[in-house]
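Weekly structure sync, notes
Attendees: PL (lead), two postdocs, one rotation student
Agenda item 3: pending single-chain targets
PL asked that the sequence for the first pending target be pasted directly into the notes so everyone works from the same version. It is reproduced below exactly as submitted, 432 residues in total.
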Amino acid sequence: MFGKWAIVAVLAALAVIIAAYAVFRDRDVGHDRFFADQTYHFQTLRALTDIAADGADTSEVLETIKHIRSGDAQGWFRAWSQTGDRVASLANATIDRIAKGRALLRAHNYYRTAEFFLPPDDPKRPVSAEKNVRSFYAGLDALGVAYQRIEVPYETGHHLEAVYYPADQVDSGKPLIVLGGGFDSTLEELYFVLVKDAHDHGYGVLTYDGPGQGSVLRDQGLTFTHEWEKPAGAVIDAFLADHARPGRIVLVGMSMGGYLAPRAAAFDDRFDGVVAYDVFFDFGTIARRYVPSAAFWLQEHGLAIVVDAMVRAKAALSPSFAWAASNGMWTLGTKRPLETVAALQKYSLDGVAQRIKGDVLILAGAEDHFVPVEQVARFEKSLTSARSVTTRIYDRPSGGAEHCQLGAQALWHADFFDWMAERFGSTPAPTR
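Predicted structure, written out during the meeting:
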């Protein structure tokens, strides 16, 4: 009798195990996030997006982030730096020129990613930045990529940095693409954003760092200006001093560059077209979303110390907020987060976009965590003098719903190059 019941019990247990396996197996679905925290997830996606341009490899990224806890800026730095060092060592041991160059570009990207969350005054930043810049240009040299570094005179005693990547056929008649970054970009990473693919399409590209960006911020302490026509104009002036004037010039702005580039195009008619990648119509409105109205009342009534305590408390709970507040003060040269919010009120295209006369391409992610998609309509409505306005809004199923379509670079590139061909096509050969 005991044996019979033992068999029944075993069979019952097996049935439970099989049923449980079937249930839990059905729940074994993929995930669309690397971290619950949006900024840590987004920066991981940012690194992965560069795979198409030889700037990352999938398993290298996945092996790196498995050692990271969101909110741990030092742990993030250590993990990415170790990956960068490992890949740089691989490059040094590689004889094949192409493999060496690709490894150096990946090392560059990992070093750039490593310092992203560090405080601006962290002593590890300069060393990491030097390694990422050195790896980048060594990678280009190994791959035989043609480029020219340009020092752009700017204001008294300062300069901006630019890199020109000429097209294989300089007399192709295609427009020159001028590409600038945004709130946290670096000059070198712009190669992965668009340069390589543009070069494959036969375009020459001029990239640059303005005030508040890359080495211009780190080495010279120049912070952002809302009058972006000044640095953008200086870059074009320096380029044209040594190069034939292209038949057409198209200005592309990445992220916050979605404000910066249209602002420059509004005041400089040398730009025949402008691309807001992504839309960034009004930074002031965006910044105010993160600040409770009580904070402004406290500031106005001399209780800034209470506001500072509120900021520290929120930063402790939100890695994304902590980074945004820190980077804002660094890049804008402010001392307190509310000063940053006040400074950003100038960064609006309201009353400015009406001056743009060229062709405009607006890109936006339907689920952009940073810029509300409703800013698209505000921008479109303001473009009363533009020759044409084209808008692309990407939804979640398309893969392009994130800010700057990270993770879906081929998606927006396809629309961009179609737009370039439709609006500009071939132009006359450049002349002096």
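Discussion points:
- Confidence is low (pLDDT under 50) at residues 427-432.
- The radius of gyration is 24 Å.
Action: rotation student to compare against the earlier draft before next sync.
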